[in-house]
Design a protein that fits this description.
single chain; 133 residues; alpha+beta; 5 helices; 44% helix
């Protein structure tokens, strides 16, 4: 590994020490539908994001709410003795990537068949303290 790449990797490690994250793999929701919900909470304060997800009518919001609670619990485990209410936590990043795709066939008229793609996704949610200005 080159010196510049090594130095940038070390800087990245230092910045991620304070962050906590949670991952959800192979969630049986299409990535497009999950991104609609993820865009609503990206950059929001954690407890405001929980309120948004709790009252959102979309099915993906239930899964994302559970993931956010997991990320908060991971932050509490990492920072023993600190309370998330006092730490000013924010949802720093939310990634929604495409997962496995199940391919099925659906019958069609005149002996034909149409291909159905049942999509899934991987979600990564990063929680960090807000930078004080």
């Amino acid at each position: 590994m080159g010196v510049r790449k090594h130095n940038s990797a070390e800087r990245l490690k230092e910045t991620r020490k304070n962050c906590s994250f949670a991952k959800l793999n192979n969630c049986p929701t299409s990535p497009r539908k999950m991104r609609l919900v993820a865009d609503m909470v990206r950059g929001e304060e954690v407890f405001k994001a929980l309120a948004i997800l709790q009252y959102c009518p979309k099915e993906a919001s239930d899964r994302l709410e559970k993931l956010l609670r997991s990320a908060i619990a991971n932050w509490e485990a990492k920072n023993e003795g600190d309370r998330p209410e006092d730490a000013n936590l924010v949802v720093k990043e939310v990634y929604v990537d495409s997962g496995k795709m199940m391919k099925r066939l659906q019958t069609a008229p005149q002996g034909r068949a149409h291909r159905i793609r049942k999509r899934s996704n991987h979600v990564t949610l990063v929680v960090d303290t807000a930078a004080k200005k």
